[in-house]
């Protein structure tokens, strides 16, 4: 039995692989297909061995959000249209949320960057923020602007640290570590500035005023959020495109039963039914004309702008539009077997299938985060073994985490997806 889920919190191939692994470990699961672009997951479950609840728990344990969208084959009659519409609503909700987070974070980042980088660019600061005597206040003000950015984007830390706890670190783990380490070091720098004020050590104050790192903690999150917002928009456009195709099929159809015309749900059509097609109506399924003459606008399916004449024995295709005549045709393919449904299925399959190079990228992503964390720890250990102060060693370790944050990929990948999806 196939079940469809909406998954949130995935940012890259590493997240996609983590979600897949978390579900594949369950008994009774024979196939897992996670689509990063649309944010969906299709799972083939044995109902005697496993339930949807276990799948929900496994994905949430891995640090991602998940909800049941539809029941695949079991909900076929309920309609893929409603299932797809729910996905569109999920994508729209996600895009609005990302946009609000990005806007709020950017509003806080602007004054933070002015405080931290402004003096280097020759921008003046108020007198109450300059001088050694105001150093603690200057540092605390940066912290005040940075802390809300971390709280607004707290889902990075929730997902990232959950993944680490369950030994499945993802890109969010790297983002969370880099941002959190920068913020913690900033707090330590405030403490050292206070020490410098107490002992009158101006050199100590100057050194840590340039090592606050609060702007790094916030900037990492804002850059990633730009990518997340673009990605959410791309997902929404893809879901809308698929829904638009599904909306080409009418929800009802006229059929001949015992010499009478009856209006039934298009989902209830079966091969062999005689369907009446009135002028201007859309064809609800594939079939063969039995009576009547008319022209059919097939531009939605073939791109041909000139209507095609239809007579008894000619085929008609779902989602095309009848002209001025009335036709009686026999249904040959209905539901998921129609030409349009197969097109939609191929589009969904294409968006979730992977080329060999993409599968290689997934394997690399699976080890990238643990390797970066290991390198950061090795950097810390080496600097300590060489006899350098712990503060400097920790600073170097943080630098490794920060420069390894996937800001470039987090921006480049969604932009590429946006361009590809139009």
Notes on the protein architecture:
The protein is an alpha+beta fold and 422 residues long. It folds into three domains: 79 residues, Alpha-Beta Plaits; 227 residues, no CATH class; 86 residues, Calcium-transporting ATPase, cytoplasmic transduction domain A, CATH 2.70.150. Helices cover 56% and strands 16% of the residues. A six-stranded antiparallel beta sheet has the order 6-5-7-13-8-11, with no helix packed on it. Strand 2 and strand 3 form a beta hairpin. It starts with a strand and ends with a helix.
The secondary-structure element order is EHEEHEHHHHHHEEEEEHEEEEHHHH
Structural category is: alpha+beta
Distance between the ends:
34 Å
| Quaternary status | single chain
Which stretches are poorly predicted, pLDDT < 50 over at least 5 residues? 71-78
Overall mean pLDDT: 84
Helices, by number, come to 13
Query: Strand share of the residues?
Result: 15-25%
Largest sheet: 6 strands, antiparallel
Helix content: 55-70%
Number of domains: 3
- Could you say which overall geometry the principal axes of the C-alpha atoms support? elongated
Count the strands?
A: 13
Q: Which strand order spans the largest sheet, edge to edge or round the barrel?
A: 6-5-7-13-8-11
Query: Rg to the nearest angstrom?
Result: 29 Å
């Amino acid at each position: 039995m196939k079940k469809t889920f909406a998954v949130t919190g995935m940012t890259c191939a590493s997240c996609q692989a983590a979600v897949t692994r978390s579900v594949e470990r369950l008994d009774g699961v024979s196939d897992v297909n996670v689509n990063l672009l649309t944010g969906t997951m299709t799972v083939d479950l044995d109902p005697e061995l496993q339930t949807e609840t276990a799948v929900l728990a496994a994905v949430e344990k891995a640090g991602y959000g998940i909800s049941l969208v539809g029941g695949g084959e079991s909900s076929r009659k309920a309609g893929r249209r409603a299932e797809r519409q729910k996905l569109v609503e999920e994508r729209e909700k996600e895009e609005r949320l990302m946009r609000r987070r990005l806007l709020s974070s950017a509003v806080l980042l602007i004054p933070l960057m002015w405080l931290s980088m402004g003096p280097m660019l020759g921008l003046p600061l108020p007198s109450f923020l300059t001088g050694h005597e105001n150093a603690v206040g200057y540092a605390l003000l940066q912290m005040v602007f940075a802390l809300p950015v971390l709280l607004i984007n707290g889902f990075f830390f929730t997902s990232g640290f959950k993944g680490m706890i369950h030994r499945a670190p993802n890109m969010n783990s790297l983002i969370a570590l880099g941002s959190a380490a920068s913020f913690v070091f900033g707090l330590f720098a405030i403490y050292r500035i206070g020490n410098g004020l107490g002992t009158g050590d101006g050199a100590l104050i100057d050194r840590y005023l340039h090592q606050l790192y609060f702007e790094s903690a916030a900037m990492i999150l804002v850059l990633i959020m730009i990518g997340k917002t673009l990605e959410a928009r791309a997902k929404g456009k893809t879901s809308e495109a698929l829904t638009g195709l599904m909306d080409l099929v009418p929800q009802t159809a006229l059929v001949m039963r015992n010499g009478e015309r009856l209006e039934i749900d298009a989902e209830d059509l079966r091969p062999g039914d005689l369907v009446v097609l009135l002028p201007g109506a859309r064809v609800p399924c594939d079939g063969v004309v039995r009576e009547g003459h008319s022209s059919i606008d097939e531009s939605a399916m073939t791109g041909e702008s000139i209507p095609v004449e239809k007579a008894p024995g000619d085929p008609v295709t779902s989602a095309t539009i009848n002209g001025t005549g009335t036709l009686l045709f026999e249904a040959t393919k209905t539901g998921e077997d129609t030409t349009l449904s197969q097109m939609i299925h191929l589009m969904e399959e294409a968006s979730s299938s992977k080329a060999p190079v993409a599968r290689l990228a997934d394997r690399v992503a699976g080890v990238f985060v643990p390797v970066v964390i290991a390198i950061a720890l090795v950097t810390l250990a080496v600097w300590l073994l060489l006899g350098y102060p712990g503060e400097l060693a920790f600073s170097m370790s943080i630098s490794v985490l920060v420069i390894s944050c996937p800001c470039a990929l987090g921006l480049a990948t969604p932009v590429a997806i946006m361009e590809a999806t139009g």
